[in-house]
Amino acid sequence: MEVKTSLLDNMIGVGDMVLLEPLSEDSFIANLKNRFEHNEIYTYIGSVVISMNPYRSLPIFTPEKVEEYRNRNFYELSPHIYALADEAYRSLRDQDKDQCILITGESGAGKTEASKLVMSYVAAVCGKGQEVNKVKEQLLQSNPVLEAFGNAKTVRNDNSSRFGKYMDIEFDFKGDPLGGVISNYLLEKSRVVKQPRGERNFHVFYQLLSGASDDTLKKLKLDRDFSKYNYLSLDSAAVNGLDDAANFRTVRNAMQIVGFMEDEVQSVLELVAAVLKLGNIEFKPDSRSNGGDESRIKDKNDLKEMCELLGIEQSVLERAFSYRTVEAKLEKVSTTLNVAQAYYARDALAKNLYSRLFSWLVTRINESIKAQAKTRHKVMGVLDIYGFEIFEDNSFEQFIINYCNEKLQQIFIELTLREEQEEYIREGIEWTNIEYFNNAIICDLIENHQNGILAMLDEECLRPGTVTDETFLDKLNTICAEHQHFESRLSKNSKFLTDHSLPHSCFRIQHYAGKVLYRVEGFVDKNNDLLYRDLSQAMYKATQSLIKQLFPEGNPAKVNLKRPPTAGSQFKASVGTLMRNLQTKNPNYIRCIKPNDKKASHIFTESLVCHQVRYLGLMENVRVRRAGYAFRQAYEPCLERYKMLCKRTWPHWRGPAREGVEVLMADLQVPTDEFAYGRSKIFIRNPRTLFFLEERRRQCLQDLATLIQKIYRGWKCRTQFLLLKKSQIVVSAWYRRYAQQKKYQRIKSATTLVQSYTRGWQARKLLRQLKYQKRCEEAATTISAFWHGTQARRELRRLKEEARRKHAVAVIWAYWQGLKVRREYRKFFRANAGKKIYDFTIQRIMQKYFLGLKSNMPPMSPIDKNWPTRPYRFLDGTHKELRRIFHLWRCKKYRSQFTEEKKAVYEEKLEASELFKDKKALYPSSVNQPFKGDYLEISKNPKYQKLNSAVEEKVLLADVVNKINRANGKGTARIFLLTKKNVVLADSKTGQVKASVPLPDLASVSVSTQSDGFFALKLKEGSASAIKGDFLLSSEHLIEIITKLHRTGAKAADKEQINVDISDEFLVQFKQDKVCVKFIQGSPKNGNGASCKRKNNRLLEVSVPMTA
């Protein structure tokens, strides 16, 4: 069975401030401190959650925690923000009630993180599915985008939201998210142009400069150095714990998930870059001829780059910074701007650019995340807005922020009381009016349509004539002087005349959270929030479509002379809409408190926390909640928790839960005025009664624990005894069995031993009898064997003696013969001993040398140069001769493998080497090219069938050559055929024979030393073929043609070889004239080949490319 805990179990301090006893501000702060020091950052005030910022990560936001709080009663577990989120989600899903979660607190208290936790919890517990997951992802990823453009580092918070955000998340009937709508309130756009000391501009500026690629920055005309931009503060540019480069990548990814197109992202980055460039524009004074002052831009480079980014003509924007046009009904007046006005116009444009871009981002996100279905939706709103602000210097921004908090406090009290009253009526409990401070009078002081501060500020801004902050303060002093929550030193109320804590240029309002002193300087300008029409029209002329959307009032066709609404009136209208929206929903509150100003963990500053408790109205909240009944609980969990306090309800109550609670309270004798019975809950008036029940329950649980321990110990001992008894019986049985088995084994062993001894005696007796008979039979055989052995040994001794005598004679004879030979040989040996030893040694060395050569013979390849080293110097000649003989032998073996065709190829290659090696530059490139001969396949190609039939002999070479024309040096394609007897030139297209020259008529062949393919066939004078003159030809296979021609000509001319002349200048006989062919190195005009050009009637010049 699942054991459920309660808010009251293992409680550190008091988990619900309604139960705090005694209730005072000191005890309230002490309870918060006690819980904070034990890492309990959440505390309840009824259904309100107080959240302390721990400034560190705690293991209480894991998926396991989400499952722990899922579908659990609000007071069932210890206080947690998940409990409030689950209560709101289940009320929306099961009871069809629209919900809103109001998150308030000052900067750095953790409001943004709280809103993220609420959204992440709802995303985790709602339905699954591809479309649902996509919607959840888009809703969650909208946060990084808005944080980048709307959050900044302040002295109080490194990620402070500088705008108010309200998000309506829409669900279907199953509780699955369909989409959402975001509303933003009062972006702190003044931060764009100026930041307090120790603070930064909005995150996106630093993220862009740190995380964008070099290519992106180049397109945006930006530099990574922060110091180059006037709008970026340098003292806090780097923040510990913030990785701007990584955050920029996160924002780009989030924008893609939300649904931004790539061109939209680029336009947004261009606007951000334009704002940075705008801050670098500076002005200098310039006097006009009429004596008036005007301004001029110092350096126009930043202006030019900004105009290029936005697509605006530079001259148009430059004029807008120098002149201001005021339009009446029928006339226009143009005035020049001095330096101060120009700077004001620049900053106003920067603020409007950024604030309108932010509003466009919110609208664009809404387009992506809005619900597509048209049916009615359930809505959960999450409000993350600034808390009450009290600074040393409070201005217009703090005034309207505190006005918003006054309205939230008003609706908080109203909704809390209404919720209390509705629950009392629902449970049938009599409702009594509760006394509390109603701050409606403060709200009326600010927002009254006639005499309210905002109405008077608007009236002062619209009034003709000289309007200053001082005239506005005078009006306040006149109209609001008698108001009990308004204080001014210049008012008619004399009690403030000597109040030196109240300066003359200030007024003070007594808010519900305390008195706040406001300095009127800048109220009128900030409320006007004017952007000169010239700048709006200049922006509208931009070619970038996004700029046109941001400045629709700049359209000349839609000029509106009506004054735009003031900032105060716009914010008042937004707050009014927000309040009406919140009143239609069931509220849930999260009050965020920061424990210290150092942004450090484990530090609790009591004065700071006390200040926040006061202006958040938490004590007021507790008092309102405790004005009736401090604690209420459903009958079933109440009976389940306290049933052990009464014998009639313990351990099980069989009747209805309410009757059981009534029996329980009667048995405990609790005074009847301390509690009341509702329809489904019991209401307890005083926390002391609840603590009395808890104390009795604690004592009873101790008694029950003692009883359970006693029963358990008795059961354990009894079980142990029974187990020992059962074990003893089993051991005894096994022992008796073992003893009987051992006794039986001994008897069996003794019987077996007696039997074996008896059988052994009988066997031995029979063995003795058999052995005696066998010995008698073997005795005769043994005697006979011994006799025959004696006879054989006698005969053997005789034979051995006879053989020994014969051997002795032979040995003596051999020794005598050896002695005679040694005596005869000794005289010869002494004369030739040295020579014989030398010859024997040389013979052994040669034998070893030849055997070594045999085992280390080199490979049979003719190109292998290896040969074993000689072991002795006297073998040098022999070693070299053997190497030569071996090389000749393996060359012969290698040649013997050649076919006749292969022999012919190698002979041609060898002859080519003899003709051209080191003489012709073209030769090295032809070495690795085989001589193919018939390149045209003339016998197989039907195109040359006619030509093949005209040639009777076998064709040795067929190729296409160029015949050089003497007149212009250009070549004409000809087919070159070489047979055993003739050289034939034929037309390459028709195959018709143009010339046939017998080989004996060839006198010589001339070629150059260059890498060209030109050659001249010179004919013998007086021959029949010499009538038309010599032939000057060009071929890619020059080496092969000349080689084959040289070999074939020698055979045809009775071994008289054709001469091959190699020279860079030779004569060619063209009919009657001789022409000199000269080869030069140069750069030919047609590609990389050699080109021939006629210089004069006697000179043809061939240009050959230079070789590397």
Structure, explained:
By secondary structure, the chain is an alpha+beta fold. Among the domains are: 271-357 and 528-554, Up-down Bundle (Four Helix Bundle (Hemerythrin (Met), subunit A)); 422-527, Up-down Bundle (Methane Monooxygenase Hydroxylase, Chain G, domain 1); 631-693, Alpha-Beta Plaits; 832-897, no CATH class; 901-1069, Pleckstrin-homology domain (PH domain)/Phosphotyrosine-binding domain (PTB) (PH-domain like, Roll), CATH 2.30.29.30. It starts with 24 loop residues before the first helix and ends with a strand. The mean pLDDT is 83. An eight-stranded mixed β-sheet has the order 23-22-21-20-26-25-24-27, covered by helices on one side. Helix 4 (111-125) packs antiparallel against helix 5, helix 5 (130-150) packs antiparallel against helix 12 and helix 15 (453-462) crosses helix 16. It is flat and about 160 Å long. A hairpin with a 3-residue loop joins strand 18 and strand 19 (681-684). The protein has 31 helices and 31 strands.
